[in-house]
From TrEMBL:
Keywords: ATP-binding, Fatty acid metabolism, Ligase, Lipid metabolism, Nucleotide-binding. It comes from Orthonyx spaldingii (Chowchilla). It is an enzyme of class 6 (ligase). The lineage of its organism: Eukaryota, Metazoa, Chordata, Craniata, Vertebrata. GO terms for molecular function: ATP binding; fatty-acyl-CoA synthase activity; medium-chain fatty acid-CoA ligase activity. Belongs to the ATP-dependent AMP-binding enzyme family. InterPro entries: AMP-dep_synth/lig_dom, ANL_N_sf, Mitochondrial_ACSM. One of its GO terms (cellular component) is mitochondrial matrix. Residues 52-171 form the AMP-dependent synthetase/ligase domain. Transmembrane segments: none annotated. This is medium-chain acyl-CoA ligase. It comes from the Eukaryota. It catalyses: a medium-chain fatty acid + ATP + CoA = a medium-chain fatty acyl-CoA + AMP + diphosphate. SUPFAM superfamilies: Acetyl-CoA synthetase-like (SSF56801).
Length: 187
């Protein structure tokens, strides 16, 4: 059944099923390469800009103190392109490289996730509850070339980094700075 969410009708289950059936019957062409960031998010931004889709937030985050971050599809697209450039240029990453993010679920967590999709970089999420042993294992097993954390968690992350032979760059999310770390907001 079709349900209304903020006044907008969503696809009926039968519409979704018929779409997948048409793909299975080779009536729809599958793209050779699919990228959620450029093929979906950027398309929704274009449809909103052209007035063919009602404006809705692409991202809406609220913390315990009531602070909000709300990004439109166009803003999320622009910010994720900038973050993808930081990962590619400043951090020296290429498609297929791996990134470990040890972050709480702050807006930058989702932004970097989309940026990685856009650049073809593998995003490996980690929680702020990981121990030094957990982080070390993940760095070695994944052969991650970059680690991303915030200024609060960096002191817990730093002691295990010298043992990681694949790590090329360290990216800090937040207002602070640390020796040897790049800062996402500054870049």
């Amino acid at each position: 059944p079709c349900r209304s969410f903020h006044g907008n009708n969503r696809l009926l289950t039968s519409q979704i099923i018929s779409y997948y059936e048409s793909i299975n019957q080779c009536k729809k062409e599958l793209p050779e390469h699919f990228n959620f960031a450029s093929d979906v998010l950027d398309e929704w931004a274009r449809l909103e800009k052209d007035g063919r889709k009602p404006a809705n937030p692409a991202f809406w985050w609220v913390n315990d103190e009531g602070e909000e971050v709300k990004w439109s599809f166009e803003e999320l697209g622009s910010l994720s392109r900038k973050a993808a450039n930081v990962l590619s240029e400043a951090c020296g990453l290429q498609a297929g490289d791996r990134v470990i993010a040890v972050l709480p679920r702050v807006p930058e967590w989702w932004l970097l996730n989309v940026a990685c999709m856009r650049a073809g970089i593998v995003f490996i999420p980690g929680t702020s509850q990981l121990t030094a042993k957990d982080i070390s294992y993940r760095l070695q097993a994944s052969k991650a070339k970059c680690i991303i954390t915030n200024d609060t968690l960096a002191p817990a992350v730093e002691p295990v980094l010298p043992g990681s032979q694949f790590l090329k760059s360290k990216l800090l999310v937040g207002k602070g700075s640390r020796d040897g770390w790049l800062n996402l907001k500054e870049l």
